[in-house]
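Hey,
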Amino acid sequence: MRFRRSGGGGDRAARETQILGWILVAPAMLLVAALVLYPLTQGFKQSIRSGGFLFGELPGYVGSRNYRDVLSDQTSRDAMRHTVEYVLLAVSLELVLGIAVAVTLHRVFRGRGIVLAILILPWALPSVVSGVLWRRVFDPDNGLLNSVLLNLHVISEPHVWLASGRGAIVYITLVHVWGVLPLVSLVLLAGLQSIPDEVYSASAVDGAGPWRQFRYVTLPLLRPSIAIALTVGTLLAISIFDEIYVLNGTALNTRSILIQVYNTTFVTADFAHGTALAFLLAAATAILGGGYALLLRRATV
């Protein structure tokens, strides 16, 4: 009988603890619902309704028409293509350069702390500030890049660096990588520091040189950190906005999806198509995030 009473008391204590947990979590859940779920719901409702009187039509339910419109719009499709180019180029550079920087900083050398401080500086700067600094570099009139190349007689006249299509995307991507590379490098450096030194000692005994150790020891054990770096780099590249807007505004040759969302929603005041495009971007980001989460799960198993 005493055992049954203690069991019942334990169940009651567990229920009370669970109720207390829900009571403590309830304010945070209500705050999330108010600040996140409610705007998302209202935005989705806007994305399946017509533009309204501003565009000469009565507001009403139009289903998936706005989504079809933005997918068939050539400007939006170009922005999607530019975003894919940003993501592929940025993630590739960040991963390759991040591994090189992490491997270099993993070794202890004189002045390593100073190098780490300098490395973190671009990441610590706001992206708008970085864009303003690099705009002075690419300025066609009195920019630093034109001045240096003219003094070295590499070019004969000032060059407008952000005028061309692919070239401008490359330059803006480099500015973006300059700001994100420190974060990726620190993630990979943390992964390198978690690899035991005994593994390298054992592989050296087996006759593995530096390259074979990097290929068969470092890279396999670094997969979880690489998956995290890929996730962070991809999500930041998809949401690239500040660098593009500061360096080249809303120009068509460098416009990303987020710039297109901003231009459609706030410049042309087409909230229906703007929110539809924003939800398409959110869906693509969620799919990529889920894929990277599965990749990270497999890498850590």
